[in-house]
TrEMBL record:
InterPro entries: IolE/XylAMocC-like, Xyl_isomerase-like_sf, Xyl_isomerase-like_TIM-brl. Pfam families: AP_endonuc_2. This is TIM barrel protein. It comes from Leptobacterium flavescens. Residues 53-255 form the Xylose isomerase-like TIM barrel domain.
Length: 297
């Protein structure tokens, strides 16, 4: 797709995103809210979070996954949790999951990670979120021992989070599928964590980018455990991120069965490599999803 074509289509998206879904012939009653990972639009969130959320709402997004929680201040995007919740309520939006910096505590004491987890719980409860998600491992942590330690910590904080009425999830990247002497980090996490305490957030871009399986094949190993998905596309040449429908992942073929998965929430995501800018990419992906993929959910 050329930049000129993208701009032309994005202009159409901007107008269409303000119309009711019924006018656009999407599914008449989607089972799941249209979700977006806010890291995808972090530049705009840093400048003006409220205006950015309003723009995303006009595109059709209803539910979000946040990033960047400040545990010491108890803030999201510079707002105290209670203030940010009021903003969301006023806009009729929700945040059902968040990415929290647990990897910073992987090699610290159980007391320290439990203290941090308590801060995350307080914030998530205030926002009305259902899930707290562990999203990342630093490069020096991606070893067999590192993943085994991660699994142990996931079980530890998963119990703590469960006792608070919330649920912990683990988010995969490409490194989770790297060979580690005949196993992978993802195999370790799946096998050594308690499925009742630790759910899984499946990033389908990274599955297609770095694993030897399809999303459905991974889900089939532990059906019902994959309660959240990240949906994003892969550039046909660079294999970097790109807008939905502008890449090489054929979601018409690889979209898993949401019931088998145990799906509760999904989030469209594009971590960078925008054709024009992050706002236009968000609009383009929303439009493509509603027209082409929402019917599968």
């Amino acid at each position: 797709m050329t930049r000129r074509d993208f701009i032309k289509i994005s202009g159409t998206v901007g107008a269409q995103s303000c119309l009711p879904l019924s006018f656009l012939s999407f599914t008449s009653s989607p089972k799941f809210k249209l979700g977006y990972q806010l890291f995808s639009i972090r530049d705009e969130m840093a400048k003006d979070p409220v205006a950015t959320l309003k723009a995303l709402k006009k595109m059709g997004y209803e539910d979000f996954e946040h990033y960047g929680f400040d545990a010491e201040k108890g803030t999201y995007y510079g707002f105290k949790a209670s203030e940010f919740k009021r903003i969301l309520d006023d806009l009729g939006l929700s945040i059902s999951s968040g990415h929290y910096a647990f990897s910073d505590y992987l090699f610290q004491s159980d007391d320290k990670i439990k203290h941090y987890t308590e801060k995350c719980i307080e914030g998530a409860l205030t926002l009305g979120s259902k899930y707290i998600t562990w999203p990342w491992l630093d490069p020096d942590q991606r070893t067999v021992d590192g993943f085994k330690r991660t699994a142990s910590k996931l079980n530890l904080i998963g119990e703590q989070i469960s006792e608070a009425g919330l649920t912990l999830a683990y988010h995969n990247h490409g490194f989770d599928f790297d060979d580690l002497n005949g196993t992978t980090g993802y195999d370790i996490v799946m096998k050594e964590t308690d499925a009742s305490l630790v759910k899984l957030q499946l990033d389908m871009y990274w599955v297609m980018h770095s694993s030897n399986s399809t999303p459905a094949e991974i889900i089939a190993k532990q059906p019902g455990r994959f309660v959240m998905w990240h949906i994003k596309d892969m550039h046909k040449e660079s294999r970097d991120y790109t807008e939905l429908g502008n890449g090489s992942i054929n979601y018409h073929k690889i979209m898993p069965d949401p019931t088998v998965s145990g799906l509760q929430f999904y989030y469209i995501e594009q971590g960078g490599n925008y054709t024009e800018n992050s706002l236009k990419s968000a609009a383009f992906s929303a439009n493509y999803f509603k027209r082409n993929l929402q019917k599968y959910l």
